Amino acid sequence: MLVLKFGGTSVGNTQAFAQVAQIVAHARAQDPNVVVVTSAMSGVTNTLIHAARSAAEGYEQPYREARSDLLLKHQLVAGQLIDDGVERAAYGRLIDDRLRSFERLCQSIHVLGELTARGLDVVSGLGERMAAPLLAAVLRAQGIDAEWVDAAEIVVTDDSFGSASPVMEPTCAHTTARLRPLLDAGKVPVVTGFVGATADGIATTLGRGGSDYSAAIVGACLNANEVQIWTDVNGVLTADPRIVPTAHTLPELTYIEASELAYFGAKVLHPKTILPAVEARIPIRVANTFDPAGPSTLVVPDVTDEGSVKAITAIKHLTLVNVEGRGMIGVPGIAARTFKAVAEVGANVLMISQSSSEQSICLAVPEADAPAVISALQKELERELSRHFIDQVRAMHNIVIVAVVGAGMRGTPGISGRIFTALGEARINVIALAQGSSEVNISLVVTEEDADEAVRRIHEAFFAKAAASSL
Ligand code: ADP
Ligand code: ASP
Ligand code: MG
Predict the structure, then answer these.
(1) DSSP secondary structure, 191-219, as one string
(2) Which of 17, 194, 231, 291 maximizes ligand 1 atoms within 8 Å of its Cβ, making it the mutation to test the pocket?
(3) What range defines the domain where residue 354 resides?
(4) Buried b (16+ CB within 10 A) or exposed e, 332-350
(5) Residue 261 Cα: closest atom of ligand 1
(6) Residues 179-190: pLDDT tens digits?
(7) The CATH number of the domain where 319 resides is what?
(8) For 258-285, what is each residue's pLDDT tens digit?
(9) Are residues 19 and 131 in the same domain?
(10) Shared domain check, 316 and 227
(11) pTM, whole model, 2 decimals?
């Protein structure tokens, strides 16, 4: 059993759809049981979200324009790849229906002047619900018996709208019950990525980029031999190729390396993708839709090659919150209270660093969480602040965490030295530093202006020779 997930660019236009059909046909020649998971066409989720937000702010033009743009975008592919008139008409009715409900939703959002997280999940999930039926029809046009499945029928989630988590037991029961009969009948199910529904049937999404996660969930439930993430790059590279053009493919990565990379901003995999795979020990392959025979990455439980630094990644749009003051020295419990206050506001803390002199604790949090974190800390530490045990709770905006990842780093001395030399030579200031508890990651905080150059310099320090020798 193989689960193949196609990302937005992989279903971005007619050529891409045609390419996907070839990849699916090839996979079926290897294994008769193939499940496809698809994202929305590239740009569609952004368009939907923008339209809904604009409607809440009083603007109707964006959703009206979106409706006609989305119709054109999908119908173009249908017109070019679905020859059968009956099939094409059926898809035409489906897309009309979807877009009508999109317009109705946006009208209500406009009237209410308010967009809830729950409402946004209904709108943002429409992209996959337009792409999956289209892909299934394209596959049928190529002689592959495919049937689209709405993941709301199979992926049962909690109600954390905007980044819901699956409840695995009912999800696996529904996935097996719905997909097994299709597979047994020789069909290829084409499942919508990104979306799910609560046990009460309310629409949810798994978070931006969540189709990777959908594929891993389905793969784990069906005990797939491999989950394949088909995207627009040759697997997981030593750095984002948009920042480091000389980055090269990593043939193998461990689960822990891949999840650290994803967590610290390597967009190629959604950070939660690894979770369902780890439990079921399913390998994940990351490959390029536009270069299917080219290099790819296999993510596995363990690798024999210990290596050293594997990749460098960066997570942007963060705020560093500092709690600082000489009076903190020797006062027990400040750290614990700091973390408790932050946990209570539900903020996602990406890094914690405490100076050894105990004069400061700093936390990196997403920009959007920063105001809530700062006011929670000011409240919790009110007494210490008024007595000047703590000087201030200070925010530093527009910061980036650069993470250097590799399981072999723990046994290799001198890694930090090389990182600091590289940054020092480029006169890049390191604001804070933390070593993840997993020891497969060293994280550095730098300003947004320095971030890309920091990634390039560290990459050069560790991979310049490899890049040169492969020329
Ligand atoms: P998809 O739409 O297929 O899910 P994404 O845009 O979500 O694709 O992810 C692929 C992108 O991830 C690449 O185009 C690349 O710019 C970016 N990326 C960031 N870091 C890495 C990395 N270390 N290796 C590969 N790609 C990366
Ligand atoms: N279409 C969704 C998004 O753009 C999910 C995905 O692409 O994985 O976030
Ligand atoms: Mg993605």
Answers:
(1) EESSEEEETT--EEE--TTTHHHHHHHHH
(2) 231
(3) 311-470
(4) eebeebbeebbeeeebeeb
(5) 23
(6) 999 999 999 999
(7) 3.30.2130.10
(8) 999 999 999 999 999 999 999 899 999 9
(9) yes
(10) no
(11) 0.94
